Every structure is written in C-alpha cells, then in structure tokens.
UniProtKB/TrEMBL annotation, chains A, B:
It holds the Pfam family DAO. It comes from the Bacteria. The keyword Cell cycle does not apply. GO terms for molecular function: flavin adenine dinucleotide binding; glycine oxidase activity. GO terms for cellular component: cytoplasm. The lineage of its organism: Bacteria, Deltaproteobacteria, Bradymonadales, Microvenatoraceae, Microvenator. Residues 4-349 form the FAD dependent oxidoreductase domain. InterPro entries: FAD-dep_OxRdtase, FAD/NAD-bd_sf, Gly_oxidase_ThiO. This is Glycine oxidase ThiO. It comes from Microvenator marinus. Pathway: Cofactor biosynthesis; thiamine diphosphate biosynthesis. One of its GO terms (biological process) is thiamine biosynthetic process. Keywords: Oxidoreductase, Thiamine biosynthesis. Its EC number is 1.4.3.19.
Amino acid sequence: MTPDVIFIGAGVAGLGAAWLLAEKGVKVLVLERDEAGAGTSGRAGGMLAPSAELKFGEEELLKFELESMRLWPDFVARLEARSQMKVDYRTHGTLIVAVDRDDLERIDHLWTYHRELELEVQRMDGDALRELEPGLAPGIPGGLYVRGDHQVDPRLLVQALVKAIRNAGGSVREGCRVLAIETEAGAVSGVQLEEGFISAPSVVVSAGVWLKEIEGLPKDDRPRVRPVRGQMIAVECGEPPLLKHVVRGPDAYLIPRSDGELVIGSTMEEQGFDPALTAGGLMDILVGAWEVLPGIHQARVLGTWTGFRPMTLDNMPQVRASSVPGLFWSVGHGRNGILLTPATAERMVSVYEGSVLVG
Amino acid sequence: MTPDVIFIGAGVAGLGAAWLLAEKGVKVLVLERDEAGAGTSGRAGGMLAPSAELKFGEEELLKFELESMRLWPDFVARLEARSQMKVDYRTHGTLIVAVDRDDLERIDHLWTYHRELELEVQRMDGDALRELEPGLAPGIPGGLYVRGDHQVDPRLLVQALVKAIRNAGGSVREGCRVLAIETEAGAVSGVQLEEGFISAPSVVVSAGVWLKEIEGLPKDDRPRVRPVRGQMIAVECGEPPLLKHVVRGPDAYLIPRSDGELVIGSTMEEQGFDPALTAGGLMDILVGAWEVLPGIHQARVLGTWTGFRPMTLDNMPQVRASSVPGLFWSVGHGRNGILLTPATAERMVSVYEGSVLVG
C-alpha cells in the first residue's frame, strides 16, 4: 500500500497532523528512527503556558500559542477518546513566583505586558500564593497566578497520538531511519530508507533538530533549526503532593504529574548535540527549584535527562509547504512544541489539503 | 577442601586480612552475596586522610588511622606486585579550604588540634592554595595543606585484593549469600548457605551494615552497626584536570582520579537502608563542590550513587574475637574503611593467629 503522505519523525510536530489526516481517511505513514517521542517530545516538560512563557516582542508566536490553547480542550478530549488513554491533562493553572523584591520587579514588568496583551493574569502577594500552594518558600514576596496555563504529560501525549493514528488506520514505524528524500521531475516521489525505497506523493519533514541529517532537502529553503540543550530532573512528588500547580521561579520550573512525579527544569544551553548532563546544570535547576519549594530537599530523585529544543532564529516554528512540490516542513517548535501540538496539526492539515487541492 | 577460615562479606574489612592470611598459607574462603565491593567499599571516596578527617575527641580512632597510614606505602606496593594491577594510589596531598572568614576560624581551630596532636599540617593563605590548585575559587581566604593525606581508588583496591587472594591460593565466591553461622558444642562449625553447608573452624564476619541479616550470631556480643547514607556524584575531571589534590570544602570533598573522574561527596544521613538519592543531597554536594571549584560548572556528569557507611556508636571499628570460639568481628569501619584497610588486616591476622595458637 502506497501512503498518501509520509511523516519523517514521530515527535508531536508530526504526530498531530498525521492523526488528524488519518481520521480524514488519508493514508499516513510515520517513520521514526528511534522510538516515538525519543528525540525531543518525550523529554519535554509539557507546560501549556503562553502567558507564563511570554517573551517581550514575540506577539506572532503568542498568537499561534493562544490559538493552540483554545484548541487544547477539544483536542485532548477527542484524543483521549480515540486513543482510549489518558494524557494527564491538568488545568490547575500556573504560578509565576518571585524569590525577592528585585525579582518581583521583573515579574511586575511582565505583568504589565500581560495586561497590554489582554491576557488573564492575576497579581498576588506571597500569602495569597501560599494559600494556593502551602509549600512555597516563606520568603516569596509575590507573583502571578495564570489560571489558564495548563499542562500535559508529553510522554503520554506521544503514546496517545501513536495509538490514535493506528486506530484511525495510519501507520507508525519505529526504528526506521530515513536517509534521503527522493524527487522525480522536481517533485517528491518518496523516501529512501536503509532497507529500501518507499514511494509517496507527499512528505512532511517533522524531524526537529535532526533535520539536517536527511539528504535531498532543498538547501535554499531548508529551515534553520539548532539544538538548545535543556537539563531536567524528576523527583518524587510525595503524598500529599508537594505541589498541585505548575510553578515557575526565576531559575527553574516545577511540574507536578498525577503519577507522583515532579519534573524540574531546565537549562537553555547552546552546546550543539552534546547530550551531557553537567554539574552546573543540575545544580542550577536544583537550587532554582529548592528556593521556591524548600520541601523538595528530601524528595527522592527518580531520573535525570537532557533534551534538545529545536530553535529557529526568530523562535517561530515553520509549518508550511517547501519550495519542492509535495514536500512540507513542520519543524522549529523551540520551547513550545507540546503547547503548539493542536495548532500545528491543524495548520499542517490545511497546508497539506490546500496543496493537494491545487495539485 | 575445608577452608581454615571463612570471611562473610567481600569488602575491604574482610579482603585485607583474607589476603594476608592466604599469603601465610592459611586456606581462606571469602563469601560475598553480591559482587566484591558492591556493598560499601566500592562506593567509597577513597581518601586516606587521618588529619583532614580528624574529629575532636577521637584520639583512639586517630591512633588506629595513623598506624594504618604508616602501613599504606608498603601495603600498596606489595598488593600491586601480587595482584599485577594498579590501584591509583596518589600522594598529592589534601587541601582543606575555607570558603569565608567564619569558615577559616573553624579550620584554624582544627589546625590548633592538629598541632596539639603533632600532625604535620601546613596553614596557607588563599594565594598559596591557588598556587597549588589554580582552579580554586578566588574568594577562598585560606586553609590547610596536608601533604601526608593521600588517596586510592576503592574499586581498584577491591579488585586488586580479590586478585591477590586468588593468586595466593585463596577463594572469593561472589553471588553467594550466607544465611547463618553454625556452632557445635559452643564453637563455630561453619556457615549455612542457600545451597548447603560449608564447614570451617573459624569465621570472620566482615558484612558491614548487613551484619544483622546473618542468623546465629551471639546477640549479647554483636557489634551495633548502623547505616549512614552518603550521596555521591562523579563528573569528568577534564584535560588538563580541574584538580590534582584532594580538596575538602566545608560542604563537600573532591577527589580527582587518574582515569579522569572527579568524585564529589558526600552527605551523612541517618535514613536506615533507604538507598535513595535526594534532590537536596545532590544539590548540597554540587553547591559545596562548586563553591570551592567553580570550574566544575561545565563538567559532564558521569554518575550518581549512594552508599551506607557502617557506623558504630563511638565510631571505632570492631576488629576482634567474639564471645563464641572461632567467630571474629571485622565491622564498623564507618567513614574510614578504605584508610583502615592495612591496619584492619594486620590486626585481624594477629587476633586470628593469637586465637588459633591458644586453641
């Protein structure tokens, strides 16, 4: 069976659109060189936090993020129904906390920007924050409560997308490396694997930071994606849990999961493809987490890992047709790939459908 | 072949004496439930540092340690010759560094005690310390240089002892759990394993913190040994190495190995047999190491682990005959088991020989 469209890379930048297309009866095949989510998606924090992650000057990205946030509730309900599994979508909201008065100035500055953009963000003093999260450090002078910023477990999200694709008749093949894109008369004809050729009229490159390893991509049009390393550590959240809300301090964020894990991240390091954990990286996020939630001192360490964020120069993802007919990009989701999953999926579907109709 | 003496536990508290006895023609059998060194010895830092580890009021322990220090050079030379391997015995000396003026007061207090005990310890200012170790933090105001405090790689030490025992005709059996000591007419007759009974006229219990799991020990005379957890992390020492000397700061020690590892330790935690790493434990030793050697910030993490020190109430090891004829103790070496290896071995040999002559 010849697929209608091949996705290269089983991270959320590919899986979302593959699922939606499969449900529309399009024959999709997702090829992943490792396991689904092993590259970047399964290593992410999973914050759905346009307001908490807001950076000055990134209004275009914010617009795309807010569009995605609006899609999340329906997207997750449908995904959980179709995959018959839960993805730990939690709507407790996010707290942005300051650790001292200087830090509170920075946060108030951000809050001004939130209000300019009409984002729903509530300013709170330290006592009000500790009312919501009694474990927060006594010295925290204040911060912001973002009721609308949520979270999901990225590993479960990836698993659910794979199941939903398969339940809709699509294919996901793991341990299968694409060596090159092949073209015929200037248009995509398929992909070359180690073990042979698969013909397909359309190919979506959703390979994240590993984009450049694929031969045959149009160099002039190829998105520039570079890896930015993040170090993470997971500890036991305990019972009763140390935390219910996502909490962002100045030097670390803390994400409680329903399975009892508390995920702590993360560094932003321009270190190429070096997957190392470093003494300083671990130290910085541990201290950053401890200064907002001192109770983690006794928490058992469950694991440590690093991931590579696929960053572009302007931090905007590239979800579009390429200069080669039949070839599409869905890469460069940076810090926000999990959040952007529904909007990316919908945009890719409409780009694909528009292109197929024209063709 | 019936052994003359069985050692229960292949940590350094047993292996040292087993080797010396094997070389004297005694038929020794060492039984280890896991791998040699897996319990405590292989997880140790390996500092040979009576002066740097000195605690007020522990003169008796110090005497035993100094005796062991005098034995180390000959012990290691003979061990390396007999085992045909190196154990990374390094004699660069140890630096005890203060991180601020208060801390320097504490160190000067310790130095007074060193001089009372006529230990050879040199007081240095910060610049002199940085002359020896250029990577030390610029703010370090001073400290002590202990030329005579050395180090060894505990994992190599364990391997070398096992090889030397075997080369001398002794046996070391790993993966072999002793369930009970058996007696006959009030004297030791052998040990009971899961897979059968081994008869022997003498048994040395060198099982460290796991002592209590062995049935049939005389309860009134059994040493009280409790586990005190230590958390450790190893990072890449780099080239040129970040460090040559062992360095002790107020909150962490750093031990450079010739194979490029830099071992950082350690916490002292009364947590029973819980082997967990904790967020706070890792954070404390990382911060403790970073404040004396800022260059570790970029150092790649190679591994993390915990160990249990076999502590006694008075911190003195018990190397002696028990109340049961043929049964001996070599347990409770606390923080200093590696340092005490030669003196423990010699003491055990003389206790054993004295007892056999009397018998």
